[in-house]
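Hi all, posting the design record for the shared folder.

TITLE: backbone redesign
STEP: 1 of 1
STRUCTURE INPUT:
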């Protein structure tokens, strides 16, 4: 039986949802899927639907909260848009059958810039804190930087001033704490509840042990790794109605946790993965190549015609068309499309598409009739070192790569350069050593482990510099070693071969996000002979796993050439 949706804002929400599902209102595919999910969930007998809390939050915001910036909106009531009310209805409306336990414990709201994200976060944080006052609610606003988190904090603080309620709230705004709190009392003076809102910079080490029923994870695209998000989930785990509300725009690191989380959420919407406790609202362009089309602009921007002026965004689109240097930024910030760094050579989306076409496991690959070629990119002292195996099966190139780094250096570089080494270690894409410098014996062990698993390694290529100990240890274990000069003209052929395989969707790297990260950081220049000189896009980034695979691929290509010569195919 279809549940009745009855509330002051129910018609607004349903008038938003239904036209999208039947194609009468412009929306991207992901937004449409979210609306279809909502209608389907209303018929799901596992859940009850009640608008009471959602209506409380919406009406509290609209009656009390005001805008604190902008010539058009300053001090005017904060009137929520239909898409914002739709989000609130979902988050607070669904309950497990015959309980007061809310269905959604996680959320991803993925919208472009200038759609009112920060004021919405502020208003929602304040209203949710008031909603939960009887159970002493705490709401954390956590962003990658304290400056970002404080933007919402100051909107709340300013509203309290406009309300004339400053004396009723305790506001701490100093170097050690940024919080707003209040106790509520009965007419007899007895305390009957409290609320607290605090702004924090995302730092798992400093947040271990903090607990709150609600955490708003702002600007998730800038989070260093999954640890930040995991700590937030743990912070809400003890609460029956705990909620982590992730809200962000697109970033430029397609190897990041946020991009991986976004991909997961898209799979949930498409029914490829079942996850009933996460609410998802995604607004982005469906066709990034049609970026001058106003339909794509409207699909990506739920506030199109409100805070997003059609003529303004069209002017930016035309500038992006006429000036390619601005195109990626337009796609990223205005159409909410993940893009590579501007000077990156590879389109990571192409590599991901190629990789997604294959599902072989390590065990399956070890049993296939593949000749494997090793590559090692050894660091001088304590930086990231990489090893790779490269093979070809039915014209598909397969890359298996692994990184190595001392744990002390990993800690330092994770903080300084925003590289998710600890996530890579958890996913077994990286080995951390308890040594001051890189232990090349760990690299040797990796090749031995792969050999033991059944990988038939024909030879292993390496640069002779910084590799004496590695070479002698490998020879002791009977590996056939091959010196590979890393001069760019020597490796250009292998670089081009990997590029060709990626573009033809015949390249598989076992979904290794550490490898993806390295691929995304490759910058390449061609010389007059069209040979490729490649390097990292920035001194603080790494490309070592990619380099190791290029070295391994070069060994394979030379072996193929040698066999062709023996067959008389080449002179």
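Okay, here is what came back for every position:
SEQUENCE:
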């Amino acid at each position: 039986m279809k549940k009745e949706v009855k509330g002051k804002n129910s018609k607004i929400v349903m008038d938003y949802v239904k036209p999208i599902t039947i194609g009468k209102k412009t929306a991207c595919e992901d937004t449409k899927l979210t609306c279809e999910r909502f209608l389907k969930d209303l018929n799901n007998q596992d859940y009850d639907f009640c608008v009471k809390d959602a209506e409380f939050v919406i009406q509290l915001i609209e009656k009390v909260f005001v805008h604190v910036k902008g010539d058009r909106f300053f001090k005017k009531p904060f009137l929520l848009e239909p898409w914002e009310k739709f989000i609130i209805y979902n988050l607070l409306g669904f309950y497990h059958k015959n309980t007061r336990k809310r269905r959604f414990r996680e959320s991803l709201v993925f919208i472009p810039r200038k759609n009112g994200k920060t004021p919405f976060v502020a208003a929602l944080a304040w209203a949710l804190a008031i909603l939960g006052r009887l159970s002493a609610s705490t709401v954390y606003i956590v962003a990658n930087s304290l400056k970002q988190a404080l933007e919402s904090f100051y909107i709340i603080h300013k509203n309290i001033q406009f309300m004339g309620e400053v004396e009723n709230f305790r506001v701490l705004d100093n170097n050690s704490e940024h919080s707003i709190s209040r106790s509520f009392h009965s007419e007899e003076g007895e305390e009957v509840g409290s609320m607290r809102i605090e702004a924090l910079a995302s730092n798992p080490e400093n947040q271990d042990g903090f607990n709150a029923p609600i955490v708003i994870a702002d600007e998730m695209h800038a989070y260093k790794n999954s640890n930040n998000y995991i700590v937030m989930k743990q912070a809400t785990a003890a609460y029956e109605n705990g909620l982590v509300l992730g809200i962000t725009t697109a970033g430029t690191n397609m190897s990041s946790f946020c991009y991986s989380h976004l991909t997961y959420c898209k799979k949930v919407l498409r029914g490829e993965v079942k996850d009933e406790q996460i609410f998802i609202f995604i607004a982005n362009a469906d066709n990034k190549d049609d970026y001058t089309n106003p339909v794509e602009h409207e699909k990506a921007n739920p506030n199109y015609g409100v805070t997003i002026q059609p003529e303004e965004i069209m002017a930016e689109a035309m500038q992006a068309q006429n000036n390619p240097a601005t195109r990626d930024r337009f796609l990223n910030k205005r159409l909410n499309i993940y893009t590579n760094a501007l000077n990156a050579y590879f389109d990571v989306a192409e590599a991901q598409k190629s990789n997604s076409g294959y599902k072989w496991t390590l065990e399956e690959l070890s049993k296939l009739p593949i000749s494997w070629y090793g590559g090692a990119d050894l660091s001088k002292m304590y930086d990231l070192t990489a090893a790779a195996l490269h093979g070809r099966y039915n014209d598909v190139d397969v890359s298996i790569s692994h990184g190595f780094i001392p744990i002390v250096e990993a800690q330092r570089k994770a903080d300084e350069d925003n590289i998710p080494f600890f996530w890579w270690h958890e996913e077994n894409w990286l080995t951390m050593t308890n040594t001051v410098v890189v232990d090349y014996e760990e690299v040797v062990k990796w090749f031995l482990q792969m050999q033991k698993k059944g990988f038939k390694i024909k030879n292993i290529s390496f640069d002779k510099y910084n590799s004496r100990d590695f070479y002698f240890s490998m020879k002791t274990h009977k590996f056939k070693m091959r010196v590979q000069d890393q001069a760019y003209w020597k490796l250009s052929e292998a670089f081009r071969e990997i590029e060709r395989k990626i573009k033809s969707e015949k390249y598989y790297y076992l979904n290794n996000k550490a490898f993806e990260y390295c691929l995304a950081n490759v910058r390449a220049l061609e010389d007059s002979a069209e040979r490729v000189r490649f390097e990292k896009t920035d001194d603080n980034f790494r490309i070592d796993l990619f380099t190791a695979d290029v070295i391994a691929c070069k060994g394979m290509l030379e072996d193929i050439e040698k066999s062709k010569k023996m067959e008389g195919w080449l002179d």
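COMMENT: The CA atoms of residues 22 and 381 lie 61 Å apart.
Let me know if anyone wants the other runs.
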